[in-house]
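Consider the following input, taken from an annotated entry for Beta-ketoacyl-ACP reductase (Paenibacillus glycanilyticus).
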Amino acid sequence: MKIDFTGKVAVVTGATGELGRVIARTLAENGADLALHYHSNEAKAVELKSEIEALGRRVVIVKADVTKQDSIEALKETVVSSVGHVDIVVANAVVQYKWTSVLEQPAEDYASQFESCVMQSVYLAKAFIPAMIEKKAGRFIGINTECSMQNFPTQSAYVSGKRGMDGVYRVLAKEVGEHQITVNQVAPGWTISERERTNGIAESENYIQQVPLKRRGTDQEIANAVAFLASDLASFITGAYIPVSGGNVMPTI
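Applying the prediction step yields:
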């Protein structure tokens, strides 16, 4: 069995982020042409574009605000005119903020998480799924988090946004399944990224002791799960929330 995205176009939001870069590279390495979304880091987007073009792929970089519908619609128009209709959507972007308790968390942080988790997904669906329906094929993948199952102190804004996102994906999976479009979520644990490899891996012994596999996962392992769900190997999987956390969280039946 082999993953082959030759002839497919994928859009990755937050593609200049630590995880987004690895997801984009992995899809490209398996044959996909890429639309790389960025919000502010144009230099990193240009660098990543060059890397992926060196693999022989078509690439377009697009600046957009994923919390605004008109910006997502403009992104779609740019992508379609540059590299064609999109077969794979990966909703990876999220607004960053400082975590604190419910009583101290500013209200605007809850709004930002709702907008970047829930509404981003809604806007991306409205923009890209109609063309997938016409083609009777498509992959719609969201990056969730193990935090959605943990509900630990200081996680409230993040968890509320991601749990809301989960609801959208489960309903969407049922609404578009008849068109052979799959809708799934990958939920990373605390992941080792390029930044940590460069600057030193954070102390994590207490975390690791809770993980059955006794280690932290890597950005590549998250990207591998995304690639699997985007591939024909996962053609009968939809509506799934899949933790990639070494067993640190386990959905129950």
